[in-house]
Amino acid sequence: SLSAGEARFDAPPELIELAVKAMQGGKNLYTSTNGIPQIREAVAAFVQKKFGGTIDPGTNILMTVGGMEAIFLAARILLEKGDKVLLPDPGWGVMRTVAERQGALVESYPLEEKGGWVIDADAIVDRMDEKTKLVVVNSPSNPTGATLSKKGFSLLMQKAQEKGIFVLSDEVYHNYVYEGEHASALSCGSLDNLIFINSFSKTFAVTGWRLGYAIAHPWIIRQMGIFKESISLCSFSIGQWAMSEFLNKSDAYLNKAREFCRANMERMVARLSAIPGVRCTPPRGGFYVFADFSAIEPSSQNLFKRLLDAGVAVVPGVFFGSKGEGRARMMFACPGDHIDRCMDRIEETLASR
Questions:
Q1: Is residue 353 over pLDDT 80?
Q2: Whole-model pTM above 0.90?
């Protein structure tokens, strides 16, 4: 399968040992809703080192059940019926569902494939109006790997603040940038109108731990915490204790994981690009390629069925918006021999058309 949205490589052995130590040491009970002080202090130090900004671990951080809960809680407190939300197209399909459940009106801004997928800040700003309440940015992007530059983030944060619009910046793939350095919203504006979302799931290959966090203004964190208390009460205690000790000595693992994914990305892009009729732009970041099969099969749903019959599961591009038609998302954060087996099957089935 190339459809999974998770890392299929090993988590850090030291992190697993710390989790075992926490379990055996009696750290198996509820924590405070916001998270234990140790993990919030570790997150603040990590974020300030990686992205900049000044973060108060006591008032600016909420530990969540994965990045997904952080996104849901932010939408729950910010959005009312009739508010407009700007989402990327192509973009993660769940975001539309979350916004619409709050009664919000969704408008898309296009991501552009200009020798590599990019997020155009001007395209976002041009769509802001008096009804816009929230802009969602995912950099690096799922599914395209598109990134927003520091200049783009600065423009977006400035214009959003002028217009009283909130920005939700989903940066869960921050470690996996293959061109230049990761640019973060945290280094380009204040927390007055920013909700920063991150997760340990993709970064450390522990998706099953369901542990993420939000960084925002204290009043937003307080409101998110109130709702969280009635939904999940607290986040995974063992993961909090283990990560609090490991996070700020994780650079060697993060570098190794990024280079592993870079090599696999290049491997997959080369294999797909060699198939007649397939176009595959190298992603700037993330875990996925968003390959264009439209010259062979214009329907991404038909393509999905065809590849599944050949023994390869992918995600139909149309799941990510209208600009995904004729495309498929494929995950490369997995062993290279697995990629090769899947590429062999894809080549064989497309050659038999």
A1: no
A2: yes
